Amino acid sequence: MEKNLKNILVVSFGFLLLFTAYGGLQSLQSSLHSEEGLGVASLSVVYAALILSSMFLPPILIKKLGCKWTIVGSMCCYITFSLGNFYASWYTLIPTSMILGLGGAPLWSAKCTYLTIAGNSYAQKAGKNGKDVVSQYFGIFFLIFQSSGVWGNLISSLVFGQTPHKVQISEADLACCGAYDCTTNATNSTTASKGPSNTLIYTLLGIYTGSGVLAVLLVTVLLDQIRANQEESKEEKPPSFCSTFLATFRQLKDKRQCLLIPLTMYSGFEQGFLAGDYTKSYVTCALGINFVGYVMICFSAANSLCSMLFGKISQFTGRKVLFALGAVVHLACIIALLLWKPSPKHLPVFFILPAFWGVADAIWQTQTNALYGVLFEKNKEAAFANYRLWESLGFVIAFGYSTFLQVYIKLYIVLAVLVIAMITYETVEYLESKSSPGMPNNTNKEEPIKVQPDALQTNF
User: Fold this and answer.
1) Residues 6 or more apart in contact with residue 177 via CB below 8 angstroms
2) pLDDT in tens, 269-279
């Protein structure tokens, strides 16, 4: 157990350091590089490359390099994005965004595979329920990982807080903030013209780059390699290149995988809205860019704490209750964002809304990841590659229409995807509840007893 826990902590703190940098940069992209939509365009490229990467790379790299070295190599791709921001232009940010995206899918697939294998391995030795152990491992990971948003945004806030002047935002500028924002390049010109100095930007990027390098060193030195089904793999012939290459697409033959696509995409839509639209059209527009970090800390802190909480209580409540809670919380936030006209006079609201958004996001992250680990236990690499693929598509769409649509339209789109996601998720639960323990189930299901109604009642 001690060795297993050490490895889980190494992975978690490695991701913490890496995403302290990337998370902080992502929150600032739409505000820091607003000229011609460069910041949002770079994020779109990141997730477009993630889609391509999800289709092919994860199963190949994980089987070829193992989880550890896939994580190490992918982390290096993230560092290039920090370097590209030192001289932000279409010729630096777009290529480095593409490199980051290509490394993103293998990174997350390898992480999810590592946690799932480690949890099931320990459960088998200790005689515990595999689903409960994996759920706890994901809870530990997300508790530590989600706090990266706290540190990344705190760093950016402290650095940009050294700006000598205070931004004065006129009533005319405030009229262009919120759900019915003014979609013109002249929007909030006062705020845009008073951005942080290059010295402060370079200081921030230097800290972020150093954090990424530390993440790579930590995982390289301390993480143990892990392999699934080591004994069986010695007897079986290794899968052909073509078979591995197309594993992500073959996973779509499973009806449950197809039904989970809207739920997985919603994760991208809702995170994309917060990072690309809430930070720009609400926070930066009404308060200034130096408040973005502090506001996003509330999101990250709530997300981190609730990730651990939901990972623990899911075995008592079942995942259906938690998914319903997440849907209700995000529905309330969407309605509030549609009705609220942001103003510096409503300062607490800027922090409360992302905190509640983070509570619901904690459910989407922990429960959806764990759900994939349970339903597709025999095809973990391909399943988690699909997770990253469809979530990334949600990000791409959200960032892609960011510069063309008003915020209220984007909120209605997020709401529509949420409704569809809940309907298809309930369909998956219905299909699982109808599965008989003694009958063969859908492809990819390891043993019927592992995903039958009894098991589903104590899930992640």
Assistant:
1) 188, 281, 282, 285, 286, 341, 342
2) 999 899 888 98
Q: What is the DSSP letter of 442?
A: S
Q: Following CA atoms 178, 180, 186, 188 in sequence, which dihedral angle do they give, to the nearest 10 degrees?
A: -20
Total domains, the chain: 1
> Which one, of 72, 73, 210, 97, lies nearest residue 151 by Cα?
210
DSSP string covering 241-256: HHHHHTHHHHGGGSHH
Find the radius of gyration of the CA atoms of the chain: 22
Q: Which domain holds residue 199?
A: 2-224+248-456
- Residue found by looking up tokens 């992975």 in the block: 11
Residue type, 88: A
Tens-digit pLDDT profile for residues 275-294: 888 988 898 888 887 888 88
Measure the CA–CA gap between 364 and 387, rounded to whole angstroms: 12
Task: Report DSSP state, residue 168.
Answer: P
Q: Is residue 304 part of a domain?
A: yes
DSSP string across 289-350: GGGHHHHHHHHHHHHHHHHHHHHHHHHHH-HHHHHHHHHHHHHHHHHHHHH----GGGHHHH
Token couple for 399: 């960032």
Taking Cα atoms as reference points, which of 79, 81, 59 lies closest to residue 70? 59
Structure tokens at 269: 């839509």
Q: Could you tell me if residue 43 is inside a domain?
A: yes
- Identify the H or E element spanning 38: helix 38-84
In a domain, 373, yes or no: yes
What is the pTM (predicted TM-score) of this model?
Answer: 0.72
Q: Is 186 contained in some domain?
A: yes
Give the DSSP per-residue string, 68-89: HHHHHHHHHHHHHHHHHGGG-S
CATH assignment of the domain containing 252: 1.20.1250.20
